[in-house]
Amino acid sequence: MAIFRSKAPLRISFAGGGTDVSPYPEEKGGAVLNCTIDKFAYATLSSKENAAGATHVHSLDYNLSASYDKPEDLVFNGELDLVKAALKVLRPSVDGRDSGPGLELFLHSDAPPGTGLGSSSAMCVALVGAFQLYLKEAWTGYEVAELAYRIEREEWGRRGGRQDQYAAVFGGFNFMEFNGTTTVVNPLRIHPDVLNELAYRLLLCYTGTSHYSNDLIERQQASYSQKRPETVDALDATKRLALDMKNELLRGRIDEMGRLLDEAWQLKKHFTEGISNDRIDSFYAHAREAGALGGKLVGAGGGGYILLFCDFERRANVAKSVTESGGRVVDFSLEPGGLRTWMVRP
């Protein structure tokens, strides 16, 4: 039997994150500027004729293996819940009787969950991609992204927006617009010289702590629903900033990125409480003292990865500061491709 593989890239978000989280896009329309990087979530799917109906899952990230062969096995209990949600949607007849051959899933990612790079959504997209190939479905990129959103946000119930799923599907540098349930992905034609310079002057740094975005996003949603002025104003401003940053990049005005990233970070801290903390503030302050012109956490907040923009002459100083602050600089490149699937025949 054939083996079906997929990989979906992780992403870094420059501006607009948070405006893709309901109910903001339904009421005001959101906008996000992001790009994918050469870190991936991987899924391998193969069928096992001698294990009818059962699905065996091996997760390298969590060092877990589990088997599911009936609906009662797919109860959310904090263990491989994303996979369970995907199986509920993509393989609803998991009953151990007439659901076809058994399946085996092997999953791993270049970055663990809780780092702010959209790894959970990328894994969900990779799962959808592997099943699409296995089921021979002709889903479009938009349909794959929406299916991944449905699995993660509705079936599983994990809070968040739409940018991560769409970034993982389409890849590259995109300006995304969210209006209600309609999403438009605008690929940006940025000059290669600008992209090379941007990649050279960015530092992606692990702060040494992970975060749980669900709680932060729940508080942000509550603050916005209550029309808390500080939250509403910050979300409105970050949406405008995403447009400004997109225009500056298209014009090749790379030096503006540092100032705009710092502005995006200051706005983000007004979304709700807990976006930053003393450790993150100290980490960022030391990086700025060493020569970083700006930066921001790339996820919901509280920890994970921070993206720093540096003057090229002081990049090494900033990297040293990151290490001294207990962080770690991660090598990466900008990734132009999105979800990829392929079949291997033994």
Written account of the structure:
With 346 residues, the chain is α+β, with helices and mostly antiparallel strands. It folds into 2 domains: 3-189 and 336-344, 2-Layer Sandwich (Ribosomal Protein S5, domain 2); 192-330, GHMP kinase, C-terminal domain (Alpha-Beta Plaits). 39% of the residues lie in helices and 25% in strands. It is built from 11 helices and 12 strands. A hairpin with a 2-residue loop joins strand 6 (173-179) and strand 7. The radius of gyration is 20 Å and the shape is globular.
Quick summary:
The chain is built from eleven helices and twelve strands. It is of the alpha+beta class and 346 residues long. It has two domains: 3-189 and 336-344, 2-Layer Sandwich (Ribosomal Protein S5, domain 2); 192-330, Alpha-Beta Plaits, CATH 3.30.70.
Q: What would you call the quaternary organization?
A: single chain
Largest sheet, in brief, is: 8 strands, mixed
Structural class: alpha+beta
Rg measurement, Å? 20 Å
Say what the CATH topology of the largest domain is. Ribosomal Protein S5, domain 2
Distance from first to last alpha carbon: 7 Å
Mean pLDDT: 90
Count, helices: 11
Helix percentage range:
25-40%
How many structural domains?
Answer: 2
CATH uppermost class of the largest domain: Alpha Beta
Total number of strands:
12
Identify low-pLDDT runs.
Answer: 94-98
Provide the CATH architecture of the largest domain.
2-Layer Sandwich
Query: What percentage of amino acids are in beta strands?
Result: 25-35%
